[in-house]
Amino acid sequence: MTRPVVVKFGGSLLGSPERNGLLAVAARRGAVVAPGGGPVAGAVRDAQARHGASDRAAHAMAILAMDQVAMMLADIAPGLALCATPADFSVAAAARRGALWRPSPMALGTDDLPASWDVTSDSLALWLAVALGAGRLILLKSAAAPEAGGPDAWAASGLVDAHLPRLAKRFDGEIALLGPASAAALHRALETPLRRAA
C-alpha cells in the first residue's frame, strides 16, 4: 500500500503568487495538505496578549484558526477534498484525490500535543503524518531552506517550532523543508521516490 505524503502549506504562503500552483500540484499528486494558521492564528496571538487567555485556550483557538484557513483553501482549490477524520482521508485516497486537513476533530483535546506556542502548525502537520502513517512530510516555507541540517537545526534557527524535533523521533518517514516554495519545486519533491526504511 502506498504511504501518503503530507504537505504543510505555511500560512506565509497565502499571499504568495505560487499559492494556487502549489495547491494544484498537491491536488494532482494526491497529497494531504495541512494548512498553517496564517493571519488567523496571528489574530489569536494578539487576542491572547491583549485579553490574557491561557495557553490552553490559545492552543485550541489556533487549531480552530487552521480550520478556517482550511475552509478558505478548499474554496480556492476545489481539487482538494476537505477531510477531518481518518475515514475522510481513506475516502479521498480511494478516489485518488488530494486532501485538505481540517484539524480540530482530530487535534483538539488530544493529550499527545502540549497546549503551548511550542506547538504550531508545523508540529501539527508532523503529528498528522505520524497518525496517517505517511512516508514523507514536506514543510513548505516562503523563506529559503538551509542546504543541510534537520529538525534540531531548523528549530534552533526558528524555521520550525520547538516541539517538532521531539515529535520527529516518532516519525519513521522523511521530513523535508522546501523553501522558497514554488509549484515546480514541490512537483520535483513529490516526484522523488521515497527512501526505503532501514
Automatic annotation (TrEMBL):
Respond yes or no to whether keyword Cell cycle is given for this record: no
Alphabetized, the UniProt keywords read: Kinase, Transferase
**Has keyword Lipid biosynthesis?**
no
The protein's matches in InterPro entries, at most eight in alphabetical order, are given as: AceGlu_kinase-like_sf (IPR036393), Asp/Glu/Uridylate_kinase (IPR001048)
The lineage's top-level taxon is Bacteria
Which ranges carry the Aspartate/glutamate/uridylate kinase domain? 5-142
Q: Which GO terms describe its molecular function?
A: kinase activity
Q: Write one Pfam family the protein is assigned to.
A: AA_kinase
**What protein am I looking at?**
Aspartate kinase
- Species for this entry: Hansschlegelia zhihuaiae
* Taxonomic placement: Bacteria, Pseudomonadati, Pseudomonadota, Alphaproteobacteria, Hyphomicrobiales
